């Protein structure tokens, strides 16, 4: 084999390793994205189930509309907190960015009372039917999610699923055309695992360093951590 | 435009009241026609036209509350008036600060990113508000002519 062909082989290998590392880095973000899309879907499903159950009980007269509104407001807030803990470090940082708690049930009663009866409304002077209508408004509001958020999540999920399929196809091609398929498959698996692990760990670490609700810091941490982990794994697994 | 006392006897400037009204667009719950009507009516009552309100939305409200629409499980109840005002004031203070973060926040690139992402998320709902403001103003003009 000539010197030129040895150099070509070396350059090609360097290029392929670089491409694999870039692919593993992208995969680590796709994993986090898909994770958050799944958490969002679970959140929506859980809300719909809770609202359906509570609304049915109120319609059947098993509980008052006031009790339904109270329980549902608490349930949705609990679900919100639970889903945030289930999301990726980036998702958690974004959710906690605003730091302030939402409105209380009394605030919501005030909002929907004004919407129905104007600014001068006195809730205590309303009839029970009027009060029930306001509680039902709160139940309805808890049941709905923002369509802009749903559309964004749907688009991100759609895009990331397709990139995942493309990424898997590239990996299969690389393994199939490799002179050493076992070695290539092992390297791809290690790089992807390192990318995901590094990204999650560095994102969480950045969250600790920058404090809660620092999405830019956590995202940057996850990017850098994922890249370093992939590069490190790539250097160990030549 | 005049300041108005809100519950708790806190006097809010028209701009602060506009922040509170516009922050409603960023709740993680459906924005109903009733919500759109209420936001538009508040802005008209405060004396803001579509262009002025849109500028406040793009440059002062969306950069703060837009994050809520990127969250997996965002705030769905809305923010208390004092929190909404405080969050925007904090953000404006950070933007004018003589720090690297402040310089970045003032840069045209950051402004473009914020507009593309945060304003982009509420643009369809904002257009509904803008139409309601236009209708409100047209109705007022018609009644003035009579």
Structure description:
The complex is a heterodimer of chains A (238) and B (146). Chain A is an all-alpha fold and 238 residues long. Chain A has one domain (12-236). Chain A is built from eight helices and no strands. Chain A has helices spanning 3-59, 65-86, 89-96, 105-117, 128-143, 147-177, 181-210, 215-236. Chain A starts with a helix and ends with a helix. In chain A, 34% of the residues are buried. With 146 residues, chain B is mostly helical. Chain B has one domain. In chain B, 69% of the residues lie in helices and 4% in strands. Chain B has helices at 14-23, 33-46, 50-65, 81-96, 100-106, 108-145; strands spanning 4-6, 10-12. Chain B has a two-stranded antiparallel ribbon. In chain B, α1 (14-23) packs across α4 and α3 (50-65) crosses α4. The longest helix of chain B is centred in the last third of the chain and has 38 residues, at 108-145. Chain B is globular. Chain B starts with a strand and ends with a helix. Classes of the chains: A mainly alpha (238), B mainly alpha (146).
In short:
By secondary structure, chain A is mainly α. Chain A has one domain.
Features:
heterodimer, A: 238 residues, mainly alpha, 84% helix, 0% strand, elongated, B: 146 residues, two-stranded antiparallel sheet, 6 helices, 2 strands, 69% helix, globular, disordered N terminus
Which helices and strands appear, and what pairs or packs with what?
The complex is a heterodimer of chains A (238) and B (146).
Chain A: H1 3-59, H2 65-86, H3 89-96, H4 105-117, H5 128-143, H6 147-177, H7 181-210, H8 215-236
Helix pairs in contact in A: 1-2, 1-5, 1-6, 1-7, 1-8, 2-5, 3-8, 4-5, 6-7, 7-8
Chain B: E1 4-6, E2 10-12, H1 14-23, H2 33-46, H3 50-65, H4 81-96, H5 100-106, H6 108-145
Helix pairs in contact in B: 1-2, 1-3, 1-4, 2-6, 3-4, 3-6
Give the N-terminus to C-terminus distance of chain A in angstroms.
22 Å
Q: Tell me, briefly, the overall form of chain A.
A: elongated
- Helical amount among residues of chain A, as a percent range? over 70%
| Poorly predicted tracts of residues of chain B | 1-6
Annotation field: number of helices of chain A: 8
Order of helices and strands of chain B: EEHHHHHH
Largest sheet report of chain A: none
- The count of β-strands of chain A is 0
**Most strands sheet of chain B:** 2 strands, antiparallel
* Total helical segments of chain B: 6
Strand content of chain B: under 5%
Radius of gyration of chain A: 26 Å
Radius of gyration of chain B: 16 Å
Which protein chains make the most extensive interface, counting residues with beta carbons within 8 Å of the other chain's beta carbons? Answer: A-B, 37 and 31 residues
Task: For the record, give the distance between the C-alpha atoms at the N and C termini of chain B, rounded to a whole number.
Answer: 24 Å
């Amino acid at each position: 084999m000539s010197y030129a062909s040895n150099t070509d082989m070396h350059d090609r290998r360097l290029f392929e390793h670089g491409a694999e590392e870039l692919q593993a880095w992208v995969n680590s973000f796709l994993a986090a994205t898909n994770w958050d899309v799944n958490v969002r879907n679970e959140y929506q499903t859980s809300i719909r189930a809770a609202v359906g159950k509570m609304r049915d009980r109120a319609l059947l007269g098993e509980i008052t509309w006031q009790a339904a509104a109270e329980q549902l407001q608490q349930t949705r807030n609990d679900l919100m907190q639970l889903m945030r803990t289930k999301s990726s470090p980036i998702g958690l940082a974004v959710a906690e960015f605003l730091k302030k708690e939402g409105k209380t049930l009394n605030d919501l009663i005030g909002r929907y009372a004004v919407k129905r009866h104007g600014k001068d409304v006195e809730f205590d002077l309303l009839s029970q039917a009027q009060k029930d209508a306001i509680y039902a408004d709160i139940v309805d509001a808890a049941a709905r999610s923002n369509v802009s958020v749903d559309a964004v999540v749907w688009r991100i999920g759609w895009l990331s699923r397709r990139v995942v399929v493309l990424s898997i196809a590239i990996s299969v091609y690389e393994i199939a055309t490799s002179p050493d398929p076992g070695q290539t498959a092992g390297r791809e698996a290690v790089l992807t695992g390192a990318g995901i692990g590094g990204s999650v760990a560095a994102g969480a670490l950045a969250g600790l360093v920058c404090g809660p609700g620092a999405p830019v810091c956590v995202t940057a941490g996850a990017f850098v951590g994922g890249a370093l982990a992939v590069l490190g794994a790539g250097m160990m697994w030549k | 435009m005049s300041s108005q006392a809100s519950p708790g006897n806190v006097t809010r400037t028209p701009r602060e009241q506009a922040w509170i009204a516009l922050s409603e667009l960023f709740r993680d719950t459906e924005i109903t026609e009733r919500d759109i009507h209420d936001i538009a009516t508040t802005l008209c009552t405060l004396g803001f036209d579509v262009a002025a309100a849109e500028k406040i939305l793009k440059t002062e409200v969306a950069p703060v509350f837009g994050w809520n629409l990127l969250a997996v499980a965002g705030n769905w109840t809305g923010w208390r008036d004092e929190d909404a005002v405080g969050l925007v004031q904090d953000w404006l203070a950070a933007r004018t600060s003589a720090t690297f973060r402040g310089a970045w926040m003032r840069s045209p690139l950051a402004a473009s990113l914020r507009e593309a992402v945060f304003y982009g998320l509420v643009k369809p709902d904002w257009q509904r508000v803008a139409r309601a403001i236009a209708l409100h103003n047209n109705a007022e003009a018609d009644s003035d002519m009579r």
